[in-house]
């Protein structure tokens, strides 16, 4: 009996064990199925352990060289009193430097969000100074900062350096925006050394030269307040202590956002100031080479650096602010749902950055420019001196060509920047700034005593202004246009005058469209002119541009509330009949493969025949499953197109890697504002080709970059991803990047199209209000240049609304402006489509092509494509849905046919 009980008990144990083993096996099988069948996350994890291929190693080496070429030309010497820099150093006689500031040992190489990269191997600033610059650093100060950063202790005991980290995690870390500094008490502490002297006493024995590094982080979901862009109390104490104890101080700015530097005049010992933005993988080496004179700095500022950020016209419209200078809230419609319905008034119109400060200076005698502006847009110093002269201006068929001589009258070889601006006639009919960048170039290296002559050309229509109130078109008003050779946006060197005899109106009734447009531009954003109190040259202090939103602005109209939802129109409402139903799923005797379409012009009718082969399911998959890849259709030879995020790298990350199933991680490039600070479109092209080479090595055919929104204010946490405050500079640099990448067969998705000038609230139905002149002349300008001159094949739309329409579903933006006016041939993808207002049918009907559906892959490959397929199968909407799906598929597959995989 006892034996039977034992056997029975054993059988139960075995059964339980079998069940447990089976459960584990099922779970493991489920994980494998999910990781390798439903998604590609398993392949991503495996790829992490694969060694780099030879092709990847070569692309890495090439990209590293590109990084340093950019930073060599992009870092800006903002101040160099008494010609303090460069520091003379030799192998036998190293210059000694005392380095202060937490950012000296925890440098920001990149920042947070979708452009997250691995900066583990980035060259630390101290290593660059000691190894590349051949400088000797005060080790005790390094240990002081190491210890304080790692554990908050004030000690000079020897310890290891902290590991590289930056705000590069996917969503960023707000606590990494500003790091705590060693408190001033530490510098007064007499117990750190046995001799009773302070660390400052010992540092002065080491060297009379000190370096201070201050910086600010950024990232997605981040806005920086005016208070955060000033020195903290701890930083101010550090600056005071260092500047009061050392004769020669160098200030390094490790920030992509403009900071308030009004303290510089208080400290004559701060001889030199260098802006390095976020230097990327090896950019710190360029700083070392600039400090020792191996590299002659030639970067120029891409923003206006002002003494008081709250005097910027856009400041009071950016966010609500309290007395301490910190953000206290977002502008939100009180009658909208709590989590939706934010707004942003771009009430300053065209007066953004230098366009405001230079125009105010030129037209308002009471304006104290030198008190307001510390460093002008386009400012930058060199270790030599250049003399520029405007030799001649020639006009032929409305093309204006300037011949400019540049002579090096100094003692060192170096590069200079030629900047040309224009001042148009002002009648009061159309707002105009008195300084407008129209063209520029970077010189070659010029030896002392040598002169080089450069020809720069542009067209008269480049000086036209957009008249949204009267002619609803671009207008080149009659009068004299002063063409100015300038040192920067403020300092004029020489000028000539170009005369327009009578108004030239670029519309069908008059002069026709501009030569670069397919059709004449006309108002497409009239409903965005919600606030009519825009800033004018009267500089009215009561304007909303200076005072911010008024009480009545916080109540949304019914039209605004209705705009938060979208209703798909029926075919009958759109005027379609049964005869309009397009052919789809056609079986040809000889199927047309995508390889047959490589090199076929966009307007060739063969595209219609090719697209007619696609089934409704395939059409919906192409438009509806676009996160970090474009759909594969094996039967027609359409490859899966992998396309990670970017801006500062082409690299898989925690978002894109599991979806793409690969772990290709490219080099971290310098922040785009450094690329723009080169003022060298060739540098942009170099970066584009470098990205293209990396893409091919990793198997990528697309890249969610470059980003080219405007630095409307210094407050946007994503300014580090954008080029500058000026559309022409941003556009020309971006066009170089795009054209270089396209030559290597990579689709660049220029983003965020458009008016994505603020982070918080942008994903919660942010209504952006602006006049059409500002929209076109300021915010669309860089995109226009990247399309027309760069030939981009991709565009990414933005989260925000423009007037009453979400930008990703705005027909005026995506169809009328982008395609019909500018002639764009390629595909438009949404930004991450995770928010209720981003209606995929609105996108499709407005001219968008692909939804960046990040959830589809986690649901077995289906999500928003189901919505599109349902609309294509619904008798009430099938005609318009299929027509738009076919148009979208043509745009997508045309772009894919131009990638390196199809060449």
TrEMBL record:
Domain of life: Bacteria
Gene3D superfamilies (alphabetical): Glycoside hydrolase family 3 C-terminal domain (3.40.50.1700), Glycoside hydrolase, family 3, N-terminal domain (3.20.20.300), Immunoglobulins (2.60.40.10)
PANTHER family recorded: BETA-GLUCOSIDASE
Name recorded for this polypeptide: Beta-glucosidase
Membrane-traversing stretches: none
The Fibronectin type III-like domain, residue ranges: 416-489
InterPro entries per UniProt: Cellulose_deg_GH3, Fn3-like, GH, Glyco_hydro_3_C, Glyco_hydro_3_C_sf, Glyco_hydro_3_N, Glyco_hydro_3_N_sf, Ig-like_fold
Keyword annotations of the record: Hydrolase
Family recorded in the similarity comment: Belongs to the glycosyl hydrolase 3 family.
SMART domains: Fn3_like (SM01217)
């Amino acid at each position: 009996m006892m034996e039977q009980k034992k056997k029975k008990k054993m059988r139960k144990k075995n059964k339980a064990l079998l069940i447990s083993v089976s459960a584990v096996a099922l779970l493991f099988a489920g994980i494998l199925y999910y990781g390798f069948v439903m998604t590609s996350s398993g392949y991503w994890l495996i790829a992490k352990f694969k060694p780099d291929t030879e092709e990847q190693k070569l692309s890495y080496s090439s990209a590293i060289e590109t990084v340093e070429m950019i930073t060599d030309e992009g870092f800006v010497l903002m101040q160099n009193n008494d010609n303090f820099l460069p520091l003379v150093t030799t192998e036998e006689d190293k210059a000694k430097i005392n380095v202060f500031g937490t950012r000296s040992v925890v440098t920001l190489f990149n920042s947070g969000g979708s452009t997250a990269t691995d900066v583990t191997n980035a060259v630390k600033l101290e290593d660059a100074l000691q190894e590349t610059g051949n400088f000797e650093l005060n080790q005790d100060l390094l240990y002081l900062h190491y210890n304080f950063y790692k554990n908050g202790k004030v000690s000079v005991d020897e310890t290891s350096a902290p590991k590289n980290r930056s705000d590069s995690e996917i969503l960023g870390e707000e606590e990494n925006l500003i790091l705590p500094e060693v408190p001033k008490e530490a510098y007064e502490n007499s117990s750190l050394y046995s001799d009773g002297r302070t660390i400052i006493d010992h540092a002065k024995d080491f060297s009379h030269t000190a370096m201070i590094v201050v910086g600010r982080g950024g990232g997605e979901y981040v806005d920086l307040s005016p208070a955060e862009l000033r020195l903290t109390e701890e930083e101010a104490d550090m600056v005071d202590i260092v500047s009061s104890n050392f004769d020669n101080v160098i200030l390094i700015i490790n920030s992509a956002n403009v900071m308030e530097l009004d303290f510089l005049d208080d400290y004559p010992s701060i001889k030199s100031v260098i802006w390095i933005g976020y230097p990327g993988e090896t950019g710190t080496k360029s700083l070392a080479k600039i400090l020792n004179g191996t590299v002659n700095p030639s970067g120029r500022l891409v923003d206006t650096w002002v003494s008081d950020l709250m005097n910027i016209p856009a400041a009071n419209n950016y966010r609500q602010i309290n007395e301490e200078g910190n953000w206290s809230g977002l502008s939100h419609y009180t009658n909208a749902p709590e989590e939706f319905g934010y707004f942003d008034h771009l009430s300053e119109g065209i007066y953004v950055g230098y366009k405001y400060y230079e125009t105010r200076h030129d037209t308002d005698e009471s304006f104290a420019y030198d008190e307001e502006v510390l460093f002008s847009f386009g400012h930058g110093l060199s270790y030599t001196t250049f003399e520029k002269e405007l030799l001649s201006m020639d006009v032929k068929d409305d093309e204006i060509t300037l011949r400019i001589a540049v002579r090096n009258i100094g003692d060192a070889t170096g590069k200079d920047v030629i900047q040309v601006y224009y001042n148009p006639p002002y009648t009061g009919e159309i707002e105009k700034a008195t300084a407008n960048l129209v063209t520029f170039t970077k010189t070659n290296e010029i030896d002392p005593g040598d002169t080089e002559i450069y020809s720069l050309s542009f067209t008269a229509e480049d000086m036209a202004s957009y008249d949204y109130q009267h002619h609803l078109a671009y207008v080149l008003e009659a009068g004299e246009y002063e063409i100015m050779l300038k040192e920067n946006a403020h300092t004029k060197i020489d000028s000539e005058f170009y005369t327009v005899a009578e108004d030239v109106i670029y519309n069908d009734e008059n002069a026709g469209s501009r030569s670069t447009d397919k059709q004449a531009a006309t108002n497409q954003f009239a409903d965005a002119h919600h606030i009519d109190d825009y800033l004018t040259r009267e500089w009215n202090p009561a304007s909303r541009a200076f005072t911010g939103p008024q009480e009545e602005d916080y109540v949304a109209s019914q039209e605004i509330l209705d705009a938060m939802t979208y209703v798909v129109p029926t075919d009958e409402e759109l005027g379609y009949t049964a005869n309009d139903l397009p052919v789809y799923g056609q079986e040809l005797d000889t199927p047309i493969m995508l390889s047959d379409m490589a090199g076929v012009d966009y307007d060739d009718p063969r595209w219609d025949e090719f697209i007619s082969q696609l089934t409704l399911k395939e059409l919906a998959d192409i438009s509806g499953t676009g996160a970090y890849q474009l759909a594969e259709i094996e039967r027609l030879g359409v490859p899966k197109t992998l396309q990670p995020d970017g801006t500062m790298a082409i690299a898989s990350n925690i978002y894109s890697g599991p979806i793409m199933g690969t772990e290709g991680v490219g080099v971290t490039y310098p922040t785009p504002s450094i690329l723009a600070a080169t003022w060298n479109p060739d540098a942009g092209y170099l970066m584009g080709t470098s990205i293209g080479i990396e893409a091919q090595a990793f198997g990528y055919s697309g890249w969610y970059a470059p980003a080219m929104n405007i630095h409307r204010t210094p407050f946007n946490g994503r300014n580090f991803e954008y080029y500058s405050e000026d559309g022409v500079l941003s556009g020309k640099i971006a066009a170089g990047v795009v054209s270089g990448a396209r030559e290597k067969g990579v689709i660049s998705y220029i983003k965020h199209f458009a008016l994505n000038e603020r982070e918080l609230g942008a994903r919660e139905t942010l209504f952006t209000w602006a006049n059409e002149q500002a929209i076109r002349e300021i915010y669309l300008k860089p995109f226009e240049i990247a399309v027309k001159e760069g030939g981009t094949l991709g565009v990414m739309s933005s989260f925000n609304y423009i007037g009453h329409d979400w930008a990703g579903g705005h027909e005026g933006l995506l169809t009328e402006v982008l395609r019909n006016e500018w002639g764009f041939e390629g595909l438009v993808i949404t930004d991450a489509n995770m928010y209720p207002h981003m209606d995929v049918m609105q996108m499709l009907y407005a001219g968008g092509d692909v939804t960046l559906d990040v959830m589809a892959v986690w649901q077995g490959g289906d999500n928003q494509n189901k919505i599109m397929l349902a609309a294509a199968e619904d008798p009430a909407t099938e005609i318009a849905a299929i027509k738009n799906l076919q148009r979208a598929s043509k745009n997508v597959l045309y772009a894919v046919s131009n990638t390196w995989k199809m060449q």
